[in-house]
Structure formats: C-alpha cells, structure tokens
Amino acid sequence: MPTSEYKALLSAVGSKGAATRSELAARSALPRSSVTLRVRELLDAGLLVEMGETEQTGGRRARRVGFAPSTGAVLAIELGSKHARWRLADFAGAPLAGNAFPMVIEWGDEKVFKPVEAQVRQALDRLELSIDVVRSCAVGFPGPVDFANGPALGPTSYANWGNGPVSSQLAKWVQGPIAVDNDVNVMAWGEYNAKWRRENIHDLLFIKHGSGIGCGIIANGQVYRGYDGTAGEVGHIGVTDVEPPLTCSCGSKNCLEVVASGSALVHRLKARGYDVETVGDVSRLASEGDPVVTNMLREAGRALGTVMSGIVSFFNPALIVMGGLLGSLEISLLAGLREATYAKATMFSTRDLRIVASSLGAEAALHGATLLALDLAYGVAIDLAEERGGKVWSPLPSSHPAERRRENNVKHITKGARSEIPMNRLAAVDSPGRPGPA
User: Fold this and answer.
1) Structural domain spans, the chain
2) Is the pTM for the entire model greater than 0.90?
3) pLDDT tens digits, residue range 205-233?
4) Of 213, 271, 391, 405, which has the fewest beta carbons less than 10 angstroms from its beta carbon?
5) Is the dihedral of CA 93, 99, 101, 107 positive or negative?
6) Domain covering 199-359 in this structure, CATH number
C-alpha cells in the first residue's frame, strides 16, 4: 500500500479540516486520480467519512471528507523544568482537553507522569471514552534525548529518570507508539508548521530562552537532531570576555547558559538585592520597565547573538525564531540578539536573515508535540487498515459526547474560528492553530 500517499492525505485533512477531493489534491500535491482512489480506500477503512456538500456554484456539488470520530485521540505532553502541560487532541489536531500543573523535573519519570495519567483518565471519563482511544503520544523533554532509543542524555539532575527510555512509565497505560524529543525540537517543529512552511521557509533556527537556552534546527523542512540527538546544545558553547569566569553545571567555564540564561539572570539579580525567584519574575520586572533588568536582558541577547553568529555563518538559515518564556516576550533580549548576530556573522549569511519572536509563544511545544503524535497515529491507522483490509475502528454513535464535541469542532473549523486554550481546566475548545502536514 502507498503509505506516503495515505499519510499525505491524512495530514492534508488535519492541516485545515474537512475538504473536497480537489482541495485535498491541492494541499497534498498528489494527482487528482490518486486522491480519488486513496480517499475511497480511506473511506472504506473508516478513517475518513463524508461530511456534507459544498455550496453549489454551478455543476454538481462536491462532497467534503473529514476524520471519522472513531479515529480516536492523540496525547501531547510538554515538560519544563518546573511545569508540565498535556493536551488530548482529535485526529484533526483540535484540542479535546488539557491541563497544566507545577512539578520539578528532578522528581523523575514516575512522579511526573503519574499526575498526567490521572488527569488524562479523568478527562476521558468526562468524554465517556476509554484510555484505548489514545492512539499515540509525543513528549517534549527539557533536555537532550536519544530520539531513536529514548533515554535522557541530560545532566546529573536527570538521574531520577533512569537509564531506560523516558517513555517507559507512559508505556504502561498508553498502548500506541510514543515519541520523546528535546522540547526545543518540538517547539521548532510546531513553529515551522504553524507559519513558516506555508511561507516556503524550510531552514530555520528556533531558540528557546527560559531557565536554560537551547536551539532547535529545521533543515530542509525536517528536524535535524544530529548523530545521537544532541544537536542544538548552544547553551554549552563558551562565551569569551566574561570576568570573573563563571563555572557552569557541566563543569566548563563561561558557557552561554551560565552567562545569559534566565536562571543566570535570576542569580545575578538576587546578588543585587532583587526579590526574584523565577524566570517569570525577571519577565515581570522587564515588562514593568526596570532599567537594570532591561539592560541585563539586552546584554544577554548580545551574548546569545555572539554565539549564534558563528552558527548562522555555518548553517545559513533564512530565519531565527526566539521562543521560551523570555525569548518570545522580551524586546530587549531580541534587540541584543539582532545587534550581535548581524554585526558578527558573515555578510552573505545575514543579508536576508530575519530574527523574529515566536508566532505561537507558549503554545509552540504542545503544538509541535501534537503534530508528532498525529504522525505516529496516522502510521498506526494505515498499518491497521492494511493488516485488516477493512474497517480500522468502529464508529461512535452520533449521541456520544466525543462525537458531539467533534461536530462542534468541525463547525468552528469551517468558520475559521480560533481560540486560546484555557490550561487551568479541562475543556473542549477549538484549536489555536491548525497543524500542518508533517
């Protein structure tokens, strides 16, 4: 079976919702004859359903196809150093439920994932669904991860995560495939698909600037992870002209992270007598116009730009996107980054380079994780269709709460509605940005 064509069509439906066959041909760049044949097969397998006709504009009305409610849901998880967020989404990427809660990453996998499991099960109970409807899961982890095999490759503070796959606790209750990636890679993938793919920009760097500093790389439209998953560890590149020298947690002197990260700024402000405990406190003071904080952020941006200038000269991206708690909010940090990067990178590598704040902000990680989970789920569905040669999953009755929510989502999608996700409660809402094809 032509798996790539099926995935292209499922992704095309997921990117913008229900569509006619002609619209799917345009979205997927597949020949109309192939689209007609593959859509018929996906309808027969129960992965797509007919969802009504378009308005008549002369000739016969075209019928739209969209995801069947029986396709189930995917689970996206974002882990930070001090927080966790999760989201259930349907096969079109529309959120069904989600929540956020404080935690400490050093707790380890069991203590971090137990609350996620409890909350996800509670949400599914409210939707009158079983855990079996979760077809796949993707996790953004706050540090380098061996993407192929799963274990964390981070510092000793991740000792409680053990030597096995990060996903081992999740695998006890998520029956489908699970992907774990560095959170900045997940953010980069989300940002790329939400905005830059359709603008034909396929080479970019995504910088996460929060408690730490990391860089996600999109090269030729794909996440580049390097040989063993540690590509983009810019936080541990050395910065010159720092006196007295600062010792990083990795043991080296004057790493970018110990010079310019949010945690470094918190430490420096405390030394000056400021009542700060978190990176959020730094952001608040900057928004209030505190001159000391503003100046520190600009200097941090310059240090970051000094490091990024060499990477820009080598990689020649079209775009640098700043994200993370500080990166997507603070103008001073972005100004310092632009100043140093444009001044120190080669002329040819910067002549068309743009440096911008993230379009997704805090949603980048969950959006990217949803896309990764959907790609896994599409593969599972296609494999099952091939194996069984018929219906993959039986449909839900129209009276089922999950089906009613799906119908509401479809209505919102066709109107182009957008809304923010209220992360302090479980809710069925429409998506803040439609995922693009993976």
Assistant:
1) 199-359
2) no
3) 999 999 899 999 999 999 999 988 889 99
4) 271
5) negative
6) 3.30.420.40
